Amino acid sequence: MSQTSRPFQLFRNINAKIASIPMILTASVVFLGGTIWTIVYSFTNSKLLPRREFVGFDQYERLWSTNRWIVSIENLLIYGILSLIFSLIIGFLLAALLDQKIRFEDTFRTILLYPFALSFIVTGLVWQWILNPDLGVQSIVRGLGWESFTFDPLYNADIVIYGILIAGLWQGTGLVMCLMLAGLRGIDEDIWKAARVDGIPMWKTYLFIVIPMMRPVFITTLVIIASGIVRLYDLVVAQTGGGPGIASEVPAKYVYDFMFQAQNLGQGFAASTMMLLSVAIIIIPWAYLEFGGKKRG
């Protein structure tokens, strides 16, 4: 492209570019400005209202010396790792089953995706009832004669995070299934025919041919799941409120409690900055893999 034609490129789709200016300004002021403001005031001693009394890294030192924050990080790691693993495995297996052109596929797909349409609060309340030892699974099984059966994860501090994980998987697996199914439907039919002609077992076709071809789908799905994990809040509030004690605390709840209940903005800003850092650790490698590799190619 010649040097003289480049200026004219700026005037292509000029109406669309003008229309996008308010959105760009809003995103810059609200998101970027708010992010910078939060980071700056995380180094202050702000309480009920923001104030420019800088205390260096005191808020971060206090944050990482607080048992409640450490517990919330441990819970998030347990929930996050297991959620990533089981969401991908279950979602892919369901997608692979639906990809076999089974009868009533649309019905099954709707049923499996329906939980994702519910809010996390509704999901949390529903699973709170299901896992309630006096109303849910434990009560039903004991009513059938197994008096010694015990299943009360939301009331056991050692396994409460797994009770929350069950609800999270129930809601989010349907979306993963749809993403994987879309990826599978994008695989050329000739690849399946060639694998059958060569006598390659179906599981090897999936493992060594199909899954590597679905790399972009897997990366996108991982980013979507990971962003939801970092923001985990609603399920915890609806199911346990952070209990028993602080056994099911998560970072998002820690931020909310300190900013709006404990009236300690500085501590809340420090915790939210650490959450932002964790999101950046996820997004930046993904952006580099997706766009940096394409640019090099």
UniProtKB/TrEMBL annotation:
UniProt cross-references to PROSITE patterns, sorted A to Z: ABC_TM1
Residues covered by the ABC transmembrane type-1 domain: 73-288
Regions that span the bilayer: 21-43, 76-98, 110-130, 159-184, 205-230, 269-289
Biological processes annotated in GO: transmembrane transport
Keywords carried by this UniProt record: Cell membrane, Membrane, Transmembrane, Transmembrane helix, Transport
Coiled-coil regions listed: none
PANTHER family in UniProt: ABC TRANSPORTER PERMEASE PROTEIN
Similarity remark: Belongs to the binding-protein-dependent transport system permease family.
Name this protein carries in UniProt: Sugar ABC transporter permease
